[in-house]
Write a structure and sequence with these properties.
Strand content of chain A: 15-25%
Order of helices and strands of chain A: EEEEEEEEEEHEHEHHHHHHEHEH
Oligomer: homodimer
Largest interface: A-B, 64 and 64 residues
Strand order of the largest sheet of chain A: 2-5-10-6-11-12-13-14
Number of helices of chain A: 10
Distance between the termini of chain A: 20 Å
Helix content of chain A: 25-40%
Chain lengths: ~375, ~375
Amino acid sequence: MTLIATPQSMHFSAPLGLQSGASIREYALTYETYGRLNAARDNAVLICHALNASHHVAGVHAGQDRSEGWWDNMIGPGKPVDTERFFVIGINNLGSCFGSTGPMHPNPDPGQIYGADFPVVTVEDWVNAQALLLDALGVHRLEAVMGGSLGGMQALSWTLQYPERVRHAVVVASAPNLSAENIAFNEVARRAIVSDPDFHGGHFYRHGVVPRRGLRIARMIGHITYLSDDVMNQKFGRELRQAVSENAGGYRFSTQDVEFQIESYLRHQGDKFSEDFDANTYLLITRALDYFDPASAFGGDLTLALARACCKFLLVSFTTDWRFAPARSRELVKALLENRRDVSYAEIDAPHGHDAFLLDDARYLGVVRSYFERVGGSAS
Amino acid sequence: MTLIATPQSMHFSAPLGLQSGASIREYALTYETYGRLNAARDNAVLICHALNASHHVAGVHAGQDRSEGWWDNMIGPGKPVDTERFFVIGINNLGSCFGSTGPMHPNPDPGQIYGADFPVVTVEDWVNAQALLLDALGVHRLEAVMGGSLGGMQALSWTLQYPERVRHAVVVASAPNLSAENIAFNEVARRAIVSDPDFHGGHFYRHGVVPRRGLRIARMIGHITYLSDDVMNQKFGRELRQAVSENAGGYRFSTQDVEFQIESYLRHQGDKFSEDFDANTYLLITRALDYFDPASAFGGDLTLALARACCKFLLVSFTTDWRFAPARSRELVKALLENRRDVSYAEIDAPHGHDAFLLDDARYLGVVRSYFERVGGSAS
């Protein structure tokens, strides 16, 4: 049975104060829910999304065959997070470009498109906004909050900002903060966007253009870091797109044409992304990644920082993930154990790099399934 | 005693046939030599340069205090490659932008600047041109050929193209070919340059502009891959450039301003590079890297490919080099040993990533020194 997902929107007219000191006067959040909230209201699972994903977590949109949610292999009827048992909620984050209020929307103050004036939002701000939406849905306590990558950071932050509202946190392929190298990759991507002449200081909407060149480069860089060297070698290796002869390796001898399959693949990913992602959103979300660092308020002591968390945890990492390496998940595990928290940790031997958190891997999906089988909550 | 280096230039009026089938009608090579060729002409050492280096390997240019050669810690009087004993030669590769004929020079055929019409050159082409220069210098046999990274590929290629002319090859931080991930990083850098509106299809010289935006991005990407995650964390970590308050991590909350030290460092590297590197050269040199693959003519069998080499080898790799990882050097060692060649191999435990091959590391410099002490050759 296909799960049909229906996006909904909720408008908030009270201003939202942000970590930066700024605020958003009014805003809307787009979200989807799957399954049913039980009478006890204790079977809700919030799914937090990563950089380029959205509220559309599971199922398909009516009449659109190829519109599977980004975690459709994980969430749905009979799936590891079983929507027959759980009431699952996906929320598009503030500043995103898939429905919730973001840089491409009018700023109510001057009445113009926000563009680069959209305020900088943090993981903590997103969690606060998510909490307000849950209030409105009548969900006061989450049976679980779950996310991968940047979504995992939000799940972790929930356990620190609203410890009493979370019973379980599932943090996949994540980290307690970005390393200098992670920030460096984000910065190059941002520079590619900002230095595109079509960016116009972030107010490109007024000029009827989009900084596609910059977005393409940003996406290509990101994409490389999502994959492992091994999986790239397996999928593409040094294969040529079109060998022109038997001689001299079959090369075309061109610096600008596509020569290798990996080049063709990356260009395609860049082109696709530049057509539907907003440049200001890319800047905002990579900055939220850079800024997240719950230990910083505790002099860098992660154990102290996580002392507030009181839920149970499942952490998962992937051996070939060099963006959020297993060592980063182990830092979290160690800090939680030092706080005597109940922690399960699975380090999955998977070849796919960071992208593994989105892919089908029997052991990975099995670990999550087992965990959720032990989690309380039942359909009404 | 300071070694004073003097760049020289040699003009070649016979066309050079290239691997692509094209040829360069006439050209000049810029080079430097250090020490003296002995009477037996058997103490010459050729140093091959990598992506953004040049013929200026050692010493300083007269009257320019801060003009040390890029391998000045390795080469000079009393240094691991001792110019009191060896006659050392550095040659700027064809297509580069530091003196030898390249894209910014006039194409003798139409009489205009080459620009994007400069022919694609390969590692093998460079080695052929280097051999012609050595002929002209009266050096028929090299006591050693040496290089790091792309320079190591040239050293390796010397042993295959001119096996009888090489007694020792020193191949540092190199690989038998690029992996898909390496090619991917090169491709993103190239796309950043080519999609800069100031690139003008490679003929920007005619327009009086330089694709600086693209060059900056290309350099930033490259720079990240030259360093290790560890050394970036040590040098920069999550340190802020200028904390604005004690609150909220001291962040300025900006997506476009520099927030972290690593951002400031990368921007500085990008700016500097974009001022003195040629965009077409960047395309050509990264393509030469992509193309190098001596095993391809042997069905991918590296052992067969290296059977022609008959010199002795020293290979060096660095544990934290993820661009040319130790595993890639070990592939070379294995293939050479299968051919029963005399191979020394040192895997240096160094934190600096790929850049380690240029840096002071007592064990690394010691290994090279010891190797050259065993190598023949004496000053005249």
